[in-house]
Amino acid sequence: MAGIKVFNTKIRSLKNTRKITKTMKMVSASKLRKAQEAQANAKSYAQKITSLVSRISASVDTDIHPLLKRRPENHKALILIITSDRGLCGAFNNNANRMVNQWIIENHNDYPRIDVSCCGKRGYLYFRKRIPIQAYYEKVTINPKFSDAVRIGEDLSRLFISGEYDEIYLTYNQFFSPLSQKTIFEKILPIDPKALIAEREAQKTDYIFEPAVPEMLSFLVPHFLYFTIYFALLENSAGEHGARMSAMDNATNNAGDLIDRYTLLRNRARQAAITTELTEIISGAQALN
Q1: CA distance 108 to 191
Q2: Is the domain 4-23+247-288 a CATH 3.40.50.11720 member?
Q3: CA-CA distance, 64 to 116, in Å (whole number)?
Q4: pTM for the whole thing?
Q5: Which end of the chain has fewer CB atoms at under 10 Å, N or C?
């Protein structure tokens, strides 16, 4: 059995670890509230703009705007993967990385060229030696900003319109609760208006447009793409803080269980040492007699 000094060292180390994990849990809980508020504020707007784009685009010729135009053949795909910059959040990042990796394995015969762009350090570190990296956007997932989404969306639009890629996909973790995040994998370019909402809401309607259709779509379609990316960043940010809060809570509880276990073992070791000393004293006294 290990000595009392060894157990005291382990217990002291575990108590320090428990303080750190408990503090990290509280910090993540505070950040989660802010992230949830931003996500909730954006959710209603996301639903409205999705409905608007779907209804308008379904009523016009999709060849009017290049981001709506489907390619006759798809040979080159790009995946924008959103992860976190930091770890210590359980399987949060691994779920997204594995889903992208599995999709690449399953579809590499259909797409001779598959590249990735990364938002978040964890995705970049995972894929940099596995597959060509088109772009790495640093520090855009810590505090999501619409300006970052616009920059990313402009890059993706340029790559799609120029013919560099035929399809562009997006993957991120959607937030439901601190204990539940779902990994989403969806195609964002070309935009398919009828796939955005229910079919009954995307029926062709004879609208009167002011300004003209090309001018309206030139603003509305790119803005929809930018907001799709921005909303994914918000969802992923909330999911990251929720996952980290849950992971740190589990780590705190595990540290407490280990402290209790080592305290019991230390007490047993101390009791055994006392019993040994008493036995030696009694034996020595009897020998003197």
Answers
A1: 22
A2: no
A3: 28
A4: 0.84
A5: C
Specify whether the CB–CB gap between 67 and 221 falls below 8 A.
yes
Helix axes 213-288, 92-107, angle to 10 degrees: 120
Task: Write out pLDDT tens, residues 53-76.
Answer: 777 777 777 677 888 888 888 889
**DSSP conformation class of 74:** -
Do 77 and 167 meet the contact criterion of CB atoms below 8 Å apart?
A: yes
Q: For residue 187, what is the DSSP state?
A: E
pLDDT tens readout for residues 222-237:
999 999 999 999 999 9
| Rounded Cα gap, residues 20 and 16, in angstroms | 6
Q: How far apart are CA 56 and CA 210, in angstroms?
A: 12
Q: How would DSSP label each residue in 140-168?
A: -SSS--HHHHHHHHHHHHHHHHTTS-SEE
**H/E stretch holding 184:** strand 180-189
Average pLDDT across the chain, whole number: 86
Q: Does residue 1 have a pLDDT over 60?
A: no
User: What is the layout of strands, in order, in the sheet containing 113-119?
Assistant: 133-137, 113-119, 76-82, 167-177, 180-189
Element (H, E) at 25: helix 4-57
Which residue pairs, CB below 8 angstroms and at least 24 apart, start in 58-61? 58/193, 58/194, 58/202, 58/203, 58/204, 58/205, 59/204, 59/205, 59/206, 59/207, 60/213, 60/217
Placement of tokens 């999501």 in the chain = 144
Domain 31-246, CATH among 2.60.40.1120, 3.40.50.300, 3.30.300.30, 3.40.1380.10 = 3.40.1380.10
Structure tokens at 127: 């894929």
